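Q: I have 644 residues here and want to know how they pack in 3D. Can you give me a structure?
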Amino acid sequence: MSQNPWDDDNEATASESTLVIEREKIKPQETKNAKSDPTVRATIKANASPTPEQLTAAQNKEALEDTLRKFSNKLGEILVSINPTLTEEQVEHAVSQSNEKSTSEMIGEILLKKKLVTEDELVKALSMQSGIPMTKKLDDAEIDLELTNKIPISFAKKHLILPYEKVGSSVLVAISDPNDISVIDDLRILLQSNIKPTLSKKNDIMNAIHRAYEPTAAQGDPELHQNLMNDLDSQDLTSVDLNETQDLLDSDDEAPIIRLVNTLLFRAIKEKASDIHIEPAEKDITVRFRIDGILYEIMRPPKRAQASITSRVKIMAGIDIAEKRIPQDGRIKTRLGGKNVDIRVSTLPTSYGERLVLRILDTASVVLNLEDLGFDDQQLSLIKKITQLSHGIFLVTGPTGSGKTSTLYACLTSINTPDLNIITVENPVEIQLAGLGQIQVDEKVGLTFAEGLRSILRQDPDVIMVGEIRDKETAEIAIQASLTGHFVFSTIHTNDAASSITRLVDMGVEPFLISSSLVAAMAQRLVRRLCPSCKEAYMPTPQELKELNITPEKLKGRTIYRPKGCPACAKTGYKGRMAIYEIMPVDDTIRSMILKNTDAGTIKKAAASSGLATLREDGTKKILSGFTSIEEVLRATQEDTLVA
């Protein structure tokens, strides 16, 4: 339990100054905004009969306002004493601005907006002015969820208040606007307790609200899923209003279909799923999440809910709900706890109805630093040298979902400076990067990768990123761009780095153009990271060591781990993913082999003799470092096994 900021020494002052009002601008408070929330209004109506505590509080209210009027220390004077750089002239100017009829801003807000004071200084000054203590810290463990359950999240977010601790017959409430007397009155009725406010910064309260209300969405709660299924069975789904909400946490009183979809989105984001699969079958619907590259079944809603679920997702994604015969694509922009989340939606007509796949693009969790991508020191040094080149092509290869786009974004971020003109053409633009010109491919209007690339070359670029080279036309334009003083990043679908060369040849690109423009190719895969809470050490079998070419010398002094499973990792033994890499610089030897149209296997052997570390070898390093398991590396690099 956190330390109570309302200690015995402050009790007399606290009872007289429960709320802070800025003396320079006392304004009458209106209660109609606070009572406009239907949940709050119903609760207040139900508790309209005053309790003895409320009568006492009402009597104290008059004394409080009288005390505040007589309070001599002005906020500006306190701020000047706290902040030595703040002058009285600046405070007087803020006072005159505050008194203007055209503004409703308080003095503290004006000074904060002008960056003349910090938010910490303002909160401290308000605390000194009124005697209301500052909130110690809104830790997750200190927030009493029984209190937050009585307050709708929309009400808490609107007024920036959070009840967080019960002390005797009183409730401690973090507030940011000490002028809003009506909110304290409403809270007293809602919580049926005396309210003791504490002062906090606005961002601290908002972040605490998001954290406190997230558990109420009951991610992965079987009882919640059963309740949703019961609601779906009992409701007439043909009359559901499918209008969307602004925030996934603001969905207390929605219809069952909307609550089901919001719960799926919420749980997928919180469990860091990359995709949601909604697959219709003959008698029901299967919902699966792809977490760390593996699909897990989540629930099976009834078949009768299929049309409503599909329509709800289509409306959120801006897709034509009447068209069910052809595949469609859309995009959902939603929020979770104040954080923006983009979701790509793809529909596909099947024999049992439309199948939906939702790709979650959680931009807040995207790694944009090369140092955080899992490169070892040698690989990181090589990548930085490649990205600093003035011209050429750098190809990143791998299957869909192997993290190629994230790697390219990290490369672009590392060189994104004001002296470079960087333009990308992508399908789709997954992450908006400041300082870059990003083009979205739209084949319906003829804006293909090739056409976009042609247009980019007329924009005087220094660096170009092409989302994918998938045909001869795009490949040849990219190569011509690299030969005329531009550096080009792109991706291509091959199994390893050497195969990217033969893939370009297969597209019809002349070998001499490839040898002149390609500076490096890198293959990558994603492997699941062992859960640090439950991974267990063990001795691998001789066969496992042989497959990975782990000799006794390599194993000496190292420990190999395998997954076990615990609640922290949902019993999977893995938590998160990391990449393994195969970086192949194109040197003179490889260039001569490209000109001779040599096969990929021979090129790979030549690169290995020059120090190339294959995907499997890089995976082995991460096994010996305790990051991942043998079975994960074998799964991700099975193509090497087939070749061998």
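Q: Anything worth noting?
A: The mean pLDDT is 79. The chain has 27 helices and 18 strands.
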